[in-house]
Amino acid sequence: MGAGASADDRSRIQQRSKIVTAIMGLANKPHHAPLVAAKTQWRISAPYAGTSAEPTGPEQELLAILNDPVGQKHIGIFAKKIMTAETFFCWVEIKEFRDAPSIGYRKSLAKLIYKKYIKNGAPMALGSITADIIALYDKKITDMERDATLMTPDFFDRLMTLITTDMVQNTYLRFKTSSEYDIYKKEMKDTYNKVTVEDFEYLELLGSGGFGRVVHARKKSTGKHYAMKIQLKTGLLDEHHDQLSQITSEKDILQICHNPFVLDMHYSFQTSAHAIIVTELVRGGDLGEALKSSREGYITEDRVRLYAAEIGLALNHMHDLGLIYRDLKPGNVLLGEDGHVVLADMGLAAGYDPGNLKKDDNGNTKYVPQNAKFTRRKTTVGTRGYMAPEIISGKLVKRDQRPGYTHAVDYWSLGVTIFELLCGFQPFSVYSGGNFFQEVANEEIFRLSPRTQHKIELQKMAQGVTFPPHLSKNAQDFLRRLLEVNAEIRLGCSPEKGFQEFMDHAFFEVVDWEKLMMKHIDPKFKPTLPPLTDKKIYNSYDHMMSHFDMRDKDFIRHDWYADPDPEMQKHFDSWDYISQYTLRAELGIAKELDETNIPYKVLQLTGEDIKNKKK
């Protein structure tokens, strides 16, 4: 802890002894998932330049180190050694708060920082913090609950000034004369290398499609496991021949989305023939598979409630960024080892605009969405059975006559998805009494023209839904309001109440949204999975690709080794990317920060945070 702790702060420090006891007790109990979020959110897209206009001397040197992943790693190690780690980790988390891409996520981070470092009884209370700073942030957090617009990136600037000064005096000057500083300078020389296919080992084939292949890979330098999606460039060019600017759309959307419940992209790079995306490896299957494996034919309400809340948070995050997902269905929602959901497959997502990439005062690029939630779109895309009525009705008229649709289509698809998970069938299927009769009825419908099929589907939607008797009244009302044909009054879609209306619904009465946003709720259900394989099956990338060729020889429609014309390669000029969060995770900083979250989470799991809130 930094110097300057007063005698009055000792009671706050003593609180930690209780937490350590709780941690040890939890550590001795078997559990299948970590107590902390599986993926701590990290990135340094915009270096923090200090609160003064021209930081000079030691402060400028410190900020340069803190804004670099390698420097951050080594000064963090040193701070831990000399017992000033609280200040270091608080700086890092405030930096993450400043970079948060959406107000909702920023608000959750603000509460975490306040409860973890600032408030009386905080598990990692800052030793140098003063009573007036505590009082200031007591008030700011209270005011923020009433007015979310106060949640601006400069919310913690006064505290940032204090802890930066503290770090200069109590950490940096000592770090600069330490052996750790020499190690840091040496490592700086050989860290930022371009990622290539040679940096990975290839362990197993996961799947393949028309011009895409997915493989389980492990990075040689760190041993970390990933899913690698390999796409044929000529296939992408054919797919988007009428709108070549959309070739990088899925990659771009994954790159700007930064949320615990949205698939994390770690790298994107390319060969002359292939465009490659490397994401987190999600091993628990998807919600469609979870439904099929259920003995009852449906999933219990308590379990689905968590899925609905997490999908809602993911969608709201995308909507805050001006994006519409457009293809929500059980098969596109993955289940992690920790039991939390991961929204994947951004192939039909829309709304990303390179024009929204803005330079800040420091010359750093950030994505700044405009008209976040009410931009109307007219393209009629989606999966049959999950498309909102306003999309289907657009198929009945010419494009220039379509009124268009907003982010509200995602809430309709969420209603269909949650209905299916809770009931075992879709709400507007022709016949839900048995698979055989449903197939017969569907065959009759499929013989009709597409236009007639769309009209029948809209008629069924207008009639509303009926529910099986096992659904609670709250669940029925929740689904009925999501499956509202009028998009303007659909749950979560009103201009006045927005996502808050969704969170406030009685179906979520038992959900603590603050804890959930930080993944501080431990799901009761976690998929049973075999241990990760570490056995390298393929000697190289080429060996792995040849195995795909042999396995899929009867289905291959493309030449997997054909390069695009040199003129067309320009459409992949912006493809290469390395996530700053990934670099920090690989350097070990994310794991260190996860460990600092344990005391805070113990308070939540034991209910101590509730007790303190009532005092």
UniProtKB/TrEMBL annotation:
SUPFAM superfamilies registered for this protein in UniProt: Protein kinase-like (PK-like), Regulator of G-protein signaling, RGS
Keywords: ATP-binding, Kinase, Nucleotide-binding, Phosphoprotein, Serine/threonine-protein kinase, Transferase
The keyword Transmembrane helix appears for this protein: no
Single GO term (MF): protein serine/threonine kinase activity
Ranges where the RGS domain occurs: 61-181
PROSITE patterns: AGC_KINASE_CTER, PROTEIN_KINASE_ATP, PROTEIN_KINASE_DOM, PROTEIN_KINASE_ST, RGS
Binding locations of ATP: 229
Gene3D superfamilies: Phosphorylase Kinase, domain 1, Regulator of G-protein Signalling 4, domain 2, Transferase(Phosphotransferase) domain 1
UniProt xrefs under InterPro entries: AGC-kinase_C, Kinase-like_dom_sf, Prot_kinase_dom, Protein_kinase_ATP_BS, RGS, RGS_sf, RGS_subdomain_2, Ser/Thr_kinase_AS
Pfam families xrefs: Pkinase, RGS
Top-level taxon of the source organism: Eukaryota
AGC-kinase C-terminal domain: residues covered: 509-587
Residues in Protein kinase domain copies: 200-508
Protein name: Uncharacterized protein
Organism from which the protein derives: Pythium oligandrum
